[in-house]
Specification:
Oligomer: single chain
Strand content: 5-15%
Structural class: mainly alpha
Strand order of the largest sheet: 1-2
Number of helices: 4
Order of helices and strands: HHEEHH
Helix content: 40-55%
Number of strands: 2
Shape: globular
Number of domains: 1
Distance between the termini: 27 Å
């Protein structure tokens, strides 16, 4: 079972809130209720049945988040996935 490594848990907690706010801002819809604890929100997003991923804003962006569905689809660990360049 793929899981977010403990050393990246704090990032995932913060990043999930950013993803949820951005989704709401750009679509006007919520994909997860924001009235939950950061931990619950992060866990629910990580276990969502749809693929969720994001990338950084570097000149050559690198993927910085993938939920369980993304990691399973790409057959990668968190550490492998979050080093992939966005091409």
């Amino acid at each position: 079972m793929q899981v977010i490594p403990t050393e990246h848990r704090e990032f995932a907690l913060r990043h999930t809130r950013i993803l949820a706010r951005s989704y709401k801002h750009f679509t006007g819809r919520e994909f997860l209720p924001m009235n939950r604890s950061s931990g619950d929100l992060a866990d629910r997003l990580f276990d969502a049945p749809c693929v969720v991923l994001s990338h950084g804003t570097e000149a050559d962006p690198v993927l910085n988040y993938g939920n369980r569905a993304a990691l399973t689809l790409w057959e990668m660990s968190w550490d492998e996935f979050t080093r992939l360049p966005l091409v």
